[in-house]
Design goal:
homodimer, 516 residues, alpha/beta, Aspartate Aminotransferase, domain 2, 7-stranded mixed beta sheet, 4-stranded antiparallel beta sheet, 15 helices, globular, disordered N terminus
Chain lengths: 516, 516
């Protein structure tokens, strides 16, 4: 199709204005509603409530990994939107026909891929309310409740984790929390704050350097085991990030960090940012925050703690030893939307001094100014997007309707299930653990080559009864079994292990057949 | 509080491990569910459905702007999360007690601030389903339906706007659409893609320049009337953005853009990116895309079209003349979550060649690789965050349950209401329009000084019956009346005008009193 040829039927401006006017008058005179009416909405929404409960309570019985091939969906629906409205009953019917065959069921107890994403009834109901209020909380005045509940919920949550008071708004200092969309955004926001801070500092020391010269010298650090989003934050922020080798337990250590910083300083670079991961994606290893934080503080390097998955466990006192050194951090982030039963998106981030982020992002047009500026945070300055939903409602509902005790029990149950699976694995002499069982994650492999394990995983996922993804550390390929579902029971762990074991039997048979 | 003192009660690792084990065993043995049970969820969610319908159908009767002062909420709730779970009935009761007093009612027909944010029953129900499935659609395999419905919905929507086929996935070329969170993110994503493309090109021409030297020379363009998020994208992306003066109708013109580009080229800079705004925030002016696109193409500058608000109107043929020149664009963005009845967040973005964005962001760890890579888009490479909700469901439900005809009627009704308000304004000799009525926006002011108009707005918002925000163009301050609610009727325009008029009476009286 040649450029612009789709637009040939476009009316000329003069014609179109006349047409628009007629249409407008018609519609204004009409008393017919174009919207779904409230009684119909109630029927539709209540029918959806029943569907949701049925879906979730029985998700265990569905094949966890879909069998569809790429492109499956397009032939199942029309190739253009309908001109006339359809019935909601027809839309409901299409969920099983069109959508469900292509859904990977993240909340099945048979789903063990990635890390969990949260799902709970209280959070779903809170999101309904958020959808109804549908305010955009970019400033305090745009919906005071949206900003203020977020401030208080981040204090509640910070207290649950026993974060140092400097991070909390209720301490009366500069610090406070904010809900970001994802941990990736938190990492990027912290990086941009750290970048702004360091540029300002270096400009004072070297007024002869321009900003791009300084940026060209900046260097940040993370463990080689850090999440891919850290590398991506470096790409997006246009600065060098150096990957520092982890120790034999996959942890970033203070001496390795210090050595890297010293080398870079000697090479004329400017260290500005370090990401300390508490609970890595590959193996749920914990960087030594106590060591790395002290080193970073010594060299005036911003410390960002990425505890995206494992941070939820810090609501249990017995796991807080992993946070030792938290007082050295400038920013801390974890995702209640991963392991704390608050539906995506809800990534909690605390900053000791948000002004570096606020000043880096601040653009303040007249239409967003208001009389109360300065008396409450205008969260738009704390994040990448301008718009933001009323997400604090999800935290409020989940914290109240579970209570801290049940959220702790949820964490402890998942850790217990991982231990159970790890024990099953160690009882089978064909297998070995690739790392110590950590939180809700078990890293394991068949003894032998990477190829054997790749073949094993292919068989496991091919059977479609459980779903896992692999990882590789220092060229050793292994399988990751993450406990993900809040519906998981002890029997599910037995089932999942049987699936792994059956796939291994199958692999051994074909290996034997090949040898003959 | 001294550093770290909140952590003094933290158990030592050895103690904590023992404690954890006991707790885990207790919980695993327990058959008591820690989660809200399905029947209770159904009662709670259905009660929320009734609340939502009641809230929205009667939102007109609430004071649109809350009367609370900063800090109102904290004393209304406890200062820490409860240890034990509460009843959902108590949480429901607190909505009116704690939340509603601090809500700015964006969906009231008396809300005229900013631009609309969408809210509809079909979108709310779709979001419920999205919350139940709660998949994270970062790759195709992570939930094929999530990716595939998005591909097809962006094609449906692109066809509704009559976008050139090059932007659509169904054309079989490189192009396609994606749902971003916000227009701010789309502007940033396009900027980063343009930056990556230009850096690669310049590296070939000047292999002796390093990347930071090139970045230091890059310069992008937008109208002085562009949204604040454009300036912010420049800050985030670490590149210069130049603000080009708009013409007397607040439109960016081709000659002004070309002059700026020529000056920068003469100064040794490298033009790489231009944002063309269709429907500015201040006055809903339309940059001349036909002129600017041609100029940008000539100088090999990426054209990003930001039609965040007004883009929804292009589903009506009579407004498409504003898109003339769309074939020159590299990326196009508008927000169905503003004016097309799809709840936030749903910002639709199309790219003619997504590979520039994909390659700029691509980090590909093993745990995210899958066998089907390349046969369907892995949307995580198209956006800033890694995680993403199943947002295409909202588009699907809204398009089917309204139908194109009713969505067009919605746009035309809003445009008609703005016309009506503009006429009322022009019939009052004390007032003047600050710009031509455009789409659902009326820019107006009292004849006379800016100070008079600031005083007028303060009175209007102080009365709390309607809510507006101001803007300023070339030092002329004016009020913006945006038609925002889907519940708006012709009588609401009369009501809002009476409020403005009464505030003006009030102002005139106090002006007269001051003179005496």
């Amino acid at each position: 199709m040649s450029k612009g040829s789709t637009n040939t039927n476009m009316p000329l401006p003069s014609e179109s204005k006349a047409k628009a006017k007629t249409l407008v008058v018609d519609k204004l005179d009409s008393s017919v509603s174009i919207d779904m009416e409230a009684p119909e909405f109630k029927d539709f929404a209540k029918s959806m409530v029943d569907y949701i409960a049925d879906y979730l309570e029985n998700v265990r019985d569905r094949r966890v990994l879909p069998e569809v091939k790429p492109g499956y969906l397009q032939p199942l629906i029309p190739d253009a939107a309908p001109e006339k409205p359809e019935n909601w009953q027809d839309v409901m019917k299409d969920i099983e026909r069109v959508i469900m065959p292509g859904v990977t069921h993240w909340h099945s107890p048979k789903f063990h891929a990635y890390f969990p994403t949260a799902n709970s009834y209280p959070a779903i109901v809170a999101d309904m309310l958020s959808g109804a209020i549908a305010c955009i909380g970019f400033t305090w005045i745009a919906s005071p409740a949206c900003t203020e509940l977020e401030v208080v919920m981040l204090d509640w949550l910070g207290k649950m984790l026993d974060l140092p008071a400097e991070f909390l708004a209720c301490s009366g200092g500069k610090g406070g929390g904010v809900i970001q969309g994802t941990a990736s955004e938190s990492t990027l926001v912290a990086l941009l704050g750290a970048k702004a801070k360091k540029i300002q500092q270096v400009k004072k020391e070297h007024p002869e350097w321009d900003e791009h010269t300084i940026i060209g010298k900046l260097v940040g650090y993370s463990s080689a085991q850090a999440h891919s989003s850290v590398e991506r934050a470096g790409l997006l922020g246009g600065v060098k990030l150096r990957s520092v080798p982890a120790d034999e337990h996959n942890r970033l250590r203070g001496d390795a960090l210090e050595q890297a910083i010293k080398e870079d300083l000697a090479a004329g670079l400017i260290p500005f940012y370090a990401v300390v991961t508490l609970g890595t994606t590959n193996s749920c290893a914990f960087d030594r925050l106590d060591e790395c934080g002290a080193v970073a503080n010594k060299y005036n390097v911003w410390v960002h703690v990425d505890a995206a998955y494992a941070g939820s466990a810090f609501i249990c006192p017995e796991y807080r030893h992993h946070m030792k050194g938290i007082e050295t951090a400038d920013s801390f982030n974890f995702n209640p939307h991963k392991w704390m039963l608050v539906n995506f998106d809800c990534s909690a981030m605390w900053l000791k001094d948000p002004s570096w982020v606020v000043n880096a992002f601040n653009v303040d047009p007249l239409y967003l100014k208001h009389d109360m500026q300065g008396s409450a945070p205008d969260y738009r300055h704390w994040q990448i997007p301008l718009g933001r939903r009323f997400r604090a409602l999800k935290l409020w509902f989940v914290l109240r309707l579970y209570g801290v005790e049940n959220l702790q029990a949820h964490i402890r149950r998942h850790c217990g299930f991982a231990k159970q699976f790890g024990d099953l694995c160690q009882q089978d002499k064909r297998f070995e653990l690739a790392a110590e069982v950590s939180m809700g994650l078990v890293c394991f492999r068949l003894k032998g080559s990477n190829e054997r394990n790749e073949a094993l995983l292919k068989r496991i996922n091919g059977r479609g009864n459980i779903h896992m993804v692999p990882a590789k550390i220092r060229d050793v390929y292994f399988l990751r079994m993450a406990v993900c579902s809040r519906f998981t029971r002890s029997e599910d762990m037995e089932y999942s292990w049987k699936e792994v074991s059956a796939a291994a039997d199958d692999l051994e048979q074909s290996e034997a057949a090949e040898k003959q």
